[in-house]
Amino acid sequence: MSRDHSHLFSDLTPLQQDLVYELRQNSARAVMLHQLISEKLGLNATDHKCLDFLNRTGPVTAGQLAELTGLTTGAVTNVIDRLEQAGYVVRDKDPKDRRRVVVKPAEGSSSRISPQFESIMQSTLQILSRYDEEQTRLILEFIRLCNDMTLAEMEKMKNQP
């Protein structure tokens, strides 16, 4: 069932409408791209993106991964179980508190993933080279604000019935 959302855009300028459309397009295409990458890695998209967080942050607890991703701790536990079974992560004792368990990327797992992103990174760098430092800072600010908004919206949704 389709719903008309045009009322949400009625106060926007044509340029803002174009930007919202392109953001939605970018989001949808990013989801599809990461779904394809996930399939090539033998993962589902959620597991793949959680692994991406782990590769960027290093060892974290399940609770910390839940905070980073916006997922529930129960969902994160299932993700970790699947990633561990697929050989992408290992559970280890926290060196600071041996009662706690941290999750970290398994040795060699990044070498299984990196080839999928080489072309994407080169294409991204080509795009970024079109902008000067001030423009790049503005883009960075916009993306950070969008990331913060996304996490806030996820929290709102979790608290709705």
UniProtKB/TrEMBL annotation:
Keywords: DNA-binding. It comes from the Bacteria. Pfam families: MarR. PROSITE patterns: HTH_MARR_2. The keyword DNA-binding applies. The keyword DNA-binding applies. Signal peptide: none annotated. Transmembrane segments: none annotated. Residues 16-148 form the HTH marR-type domain. This is HTH-type transcriptional regulator YcgE. It comes from Paenibacillus cookii. The gene is ycgE_2.
